[in-house]
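S1.2 Input.
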Amino acid sequence: MKKTIILIIYLGMFYIASYAQESNSNDSIFEKYTSEQKILNQSFSNYFYGNYEKIYSMDEPEFINIIDSLRKPFTNLLSCFKNENPEYDSSVMYKESKDIHYFFDKIILDYPYYHERYTGEKKSFNPRLESNLKDFNNPELLNIDSYVEYLKAFLYFHSKIELKDEYYKKLDNKQLNATFNLIDRYFSNQGVIDFLKSYYLYNHIDNLGIKNIDSLYTEFITTCKDTSYIHKIKTYYNSENKGRKGHLIKTYKTVDGYDLDIHLFLPESNKQQKKRPVFVYFHGGSWAEGKPDYFFPTGELYAKKGWVAAAVEYRIAYRQGTLPFESVMDAKSAIRWLQQHADEFNIDTNRIVAYGNSAGGHLVLCTAMVKNWNENTDDLKISCVPNVLLVVSGVFDLTDSTSWIRQDLRDRNQNENLVNEISPNYLIEKGLPPTLVIHGTNDRNVPFSTAVEFVEKMKHDGNDIEFYPIEGAGHYIWYGRYGKQVSEIVKKYLEKMGY
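S1.3 Output.
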């Protein structure tokens, strides 16, 4: 490893010498610098990202030494650039210096999180990073990407500590509330505050929705001084609010003070017609984010085709601070609620189709496969098993790809192996509902091999399953380039099943 570091530093010094000899004209000065920097970037990337887990698993002194050694060729290159071009734009030099500084300091900032993920050993915030606080109220740095990424990492790291406060225990949208409180605590410059709060509020609306954020939304609109941010947030909020109109929203369960909704899209004259099949949607988002709103346009289309369509809100980490176990219980409760209210909404309980993307696909499988993990308020005599399971880029094994769950279980002093109880590849048995699995062969979020294993085990036990690998596709196949193909596969499968 030391040889690798020495090699990188040597390469850096070689390129610096090359730069000093060849840079002459003002027009090519910065271009030459960035060209040499790209070569350093490649050397850095090959080493750092090729040894990511190994580096973050090191003891802290060794880790810091490695990162500072990796930083040195970049600072040396910039120093040479300054010395050779003393008249060059000082603002550019300043930006480059800060860019390098915060890129590598973010790696150090991330150390406690990744070290615990890979080793199980807890580490604290490195004291040397305290010196960066002096830059926190400098709005001129907001146009430097590495600085902004550092701020995000800083707020996330401290939010993990903040959320341990009892104040957040029963609070919805925990992550957003904690982040807003941290922004008020660590930042005083209005421009920086407006930038950060607009970023987090927009991101929350985009990925988690607008439910129960009225107080934070109103606070932002009232205190923000940047009209462009206000316009952006208002426009998005109003658009999302409009999308929640025009269909029924029912609370299917209240748990720990949270009212969980099911969004229903009903065909016209529903009560005068024969019993309807129901299409139940569970969104993705790694059990941490996501919103039922993703399904609203599709729900309207299914209602026009004569279906009852339902989009389920379930507990997630960034809102309620939960793990996938609670999400599984909510999914099962939602199916039971539809069974209980079948007459009210003219639902054919023999034709319940459950569909989910990614983590939502996992929940679809769990409604049929997980025997325990039931809400204590559920009537267990009512079935939570759908009649058809549609799984797109689903998660089949939580024991490998979701280390944050194990980390949180450790924090709660619970057995890490509990994840086996909600991992479909460990739960397969005979007699499961007809299942459709669609998965990209190049999925980097959920390994394709886990989908293959699931399908093979299902077939081995004699279950009715159809598998559609999409060659070369990644994880997000339900929209964009592959969205139409996935929709067509689902449509033909349902037609084949008599829907």
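S1.4 Remarks. Residues 208 and 290 are 5 Å apart (CA to CA).
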